[in-house]
Structures are given as structure tokens and as C-alpha cells.
Amino acid sequence: MAQLTHLKRLRHRSALTQQELANLAGVHRVTVARLESGVDEPGLATVRKLARALAVAPEELAGQLPAGRPEDVKEWARIASACVIAEDAMEGVVRRLVADPNLASVVAEAAETLPRYFPCAQVRLEHLIDPEWGDEQLFLSVLVSGDPKFARAALRRFDCEWWFPEGGSVAGDLLIDTRWA
């Protein structure tokens, strides 16, 4: 079995301590610590227990998100019609959206809402991987031109009126910002 490269990130995402995760999974806290640090490789039974406790697929613990096709994403038609997705980002975008249907729903709604705040801007959906931690995130970038003050004010309005009330549940998985064209 491979090392569980995403165990710590998934534990943090669930707001659990090592002890709390160990209790939920029925393993010792030291086991969780050694797996997170890469000292030990887990057995299949331990992987299943940890995955069940974190409510994820066992493959996700090792950093392998489920594969998928655009048609597997419930909100795909809305997302594809509301924003541009670069061909080189397509695989990562689809993989993230298949793995998290709630994220797909929020991306679709955000991509449809952004043009109300940025009427002449293009919305792009990108896939980012943190080079240090390996975390994957989606990035909705709004390509704007003109007065930067207007763009910042529009983004603040979007944040206050839509992002904070509607998008907070996926804040660690979706970034939204402006870029100048």
C-alpha cells in the first residue's frame, strides 16, 4: 500500500486532531502520526478505517482523486456555459468536480453570478496544485480591463453579497480573484 500523502490535509479539512481521527477510525493516535509523517505504510484495513472516518474514498488518502469525465459532473453544462476552461486544466478540473459534487454546484453558481459584478469580463476556471503541499484547488479568475479600483470594488461587492453567504463551504477548494487582461 502507498503512503497516505493526503491524510494530514484531509484530517485538517475535517477539523480533527490526530486523537479525534484515531478515535473515529478505531486506531491509535501514534498510528495516525506515523502515517502522516510517512514513517509507516498502512495496511488495507487501516486505510479503510481512516477513509471511513474522514468520509472519503480510500484512494483520496494516497492523493489519487477519482477520475471522471465531464458528463459525470452534474453541473457540467452550467459550468461549461458560464466560463472558459483551458484544455490543459480540463483533467484536473473534472477530477476535482467529480470528487466533490458540492464544489461543482458552487462553481456553477459562482461562474454564473460573477458576470453580474463584472459585465464585460471573461471568467476562466483553472486547476492549481500547491507545489509545497500538493493540495489541489480550483481557481475562478475574472479577466478584467480598465480601472483597477472598479474591479476591486466589484470583487468586494461580490464577496459580501455572494461569496461569504453562499461559497464559504468550499473556501479551501475554490479561489476567486481578478486578473488584468
Along the chain, the helix and strand elements come as HHHHHHEHHEEHE
Mean pLDDT: 84
Strand content: 5-15%
Going by helix content, strand content and strand pairing, the class is alpha/beta
| CA-atom Rg in angstroms | 19 Å
Uncertain segments? none
User: Helical content, roughly?
Assistant: 40-55%
**Cα-to-Cα separation, first versus last residue:** 46 Å
Helix segment tally: 9
The side-by-side strand order for the widest beta sheet comes to: 1-2-3-4
Tell the overall outline. elongated
Largest sheet: 4 strands, mixed
Number of strands: 4
SSE blueprint:
Blueprint: H1 7-13, H2 18-25, H3 29-37, H4 44-54, H5 58-61, H6 76-82, E1 84-85, H7 90-99, H8 101-117, E2 122-129, E3 136-144, H9 148-167, E4 174-180
Parallel strand pairs: 1-2, 3-4
Antiparallel strand pairs: 2-3
Helix pairs in contact: 2-3, 2-4, 6-8, 7-8, 8-9
Index terms:
9 helices; 181 residues; alpha/beta; 4-stranded mixed β-sheet; 434 Repressor (Amino-terminal Domain); 2 domains
Molecular structure report:
The chain is of the alpha/beta class. It is built from nine helices and four strands. A hairpin with a 6-residue loop joins strand 2 and strand 3. The chain is elongated, with a radius of gyration of 19 Å. The model has no long low-confidence stretch (mean pLDDT 84).
